[in-house]
Amino acid sequence: MGIKERRINKLIALFNEREVLTVEEIKEELEINDRSVKSYIGFLREYGIEIIPMNKRYKAIKEEKLTGNLINKQELRMMKIMLTVSENSGCFDRKSLVDNVNKSLFDEESVSRKTIERAIKSCEEKKYIYLDENNKYRTSIVTDSFYFTNDEDIFKFIELCEIYKVSMPFYKEVNNLKNKIVTQLDYEDPSYNIYCIGRKYSEEAISKDIIRQFESLNYRKKAITISYNSKIGELTESIQVVTFLYNWEKDKSYVIGMVKDKLYFIDVKTIISIVPSDLENEFFNHKETLDKLDLMFGASLDEFYEVKVEFVNTFNIKEKVTRLHKHRKSSKLIKDGDKLIYSDKLYGIYDFARYLRSFGSYCKVLEPVELKDIMRKTYEKILLNYGEIKNE
Hints:
- This protein is of the alpha+beta class.
- The chain folds into five domains: about 5-60, Arc Repressor Mutant, subunit A (Orthogonal Bundle); about 75-140, Arc Repressor Mutant, subunit A (Orthogonal Bundle), CATH 1.10.10; about 150-185, no CATH class; about 195-295, no CATH class; about 305-385, Alpha-Beta Plaits, CATH 3.30.70.
- The chain has helices spanning about 5-20, 25-30, 35-45, 75-85, 95-105, 115-125, 150-165, 170-185, 210-215, 285-295, 315-325, 350-355, 370-385; strands at about 20, 50-55, 55-60, 130, 135-140, 195, 220-230, 235-245, 250-260, 260-265, 270-280, 305-310, 330-335, 340-345, 365.
- Strands 6, 7, 8, 9, 10 and 11 form a six-stranded mixed sheet that branches.
- A hairpin with a 2-residue loop joins strand 7 (about 220-230) and strand 8 (about 235-245).
- It is globular and about 85 Å long.
């Protein structure tokens, strides 16, 4: 393992131990300079670890310990060999396998044929691959290194593929393998992406226990009877689950589903128990409902509005509004002189008004009248708290 991999592994271990690290601590522990600190933080981000800068400090966002050690180049070569053989079973002899693998190892500046041959030999010794009667390589299926997998494991692999980045090794091969699994096993992609309001969640928004419970009851095809705590006490409903939703601002996750003809939002933290139901689920990933969720500003489906707001175009305001625009599919943002004009189509006008209040006098509602009234009443109440202003 090279010095780069050792430093990355050490940085992962440090974040697991302390969570927040200063720039000076990283420099001292890894024996690197300021510029290299930024590079190594960038390496962690490429591997899917979210790191937040905090005034010469860095914080790792995580729920559990950061996973694993980075694999070394020899292991990467063996992975590439196994993926190549599995995708081209019975096609390559030793020479053509070496040629194919050599061309695809673009992440290494130079690698000799002997190095690849040694990696092939390691795969053979471990009985991952073998030469058939035609002297062509195939992957081994009679080996302790391969085992039967179940639907839960398949789903985990598919879910990981969704967040696997283009910059990661063998991106194309991994996604090709995913597509083959889905096709050959006639496996229905669960479409388990959690809908997010605001930024994408960086931690696991819904606990593994909740996920396992819903999966065990086949919630995509059957309704689920959920008992949960509400403002009026404990309630029990038979709900046809549409999807799960995460509200970044409130840091809350919800089960979204239909009860008769009404859409319910149930905070997962309020759930007491879930049990199976004989009722069919006709609303899982219901397109019309999902389209509405895309337009929600908060966890609310109150009246629909088209809004237009004018913002002062200063650096910090521009950064915040641009971030909002990035996370809203239906929004538009244009520059008009020293102003920014933000327009959007949304449900949840009161949630949107609460967001606008954080800008104070740096924003002005242009449309609709209903939103203007909400903002006006808010500031009238604030003025009343300070008494009536009289002209002297």
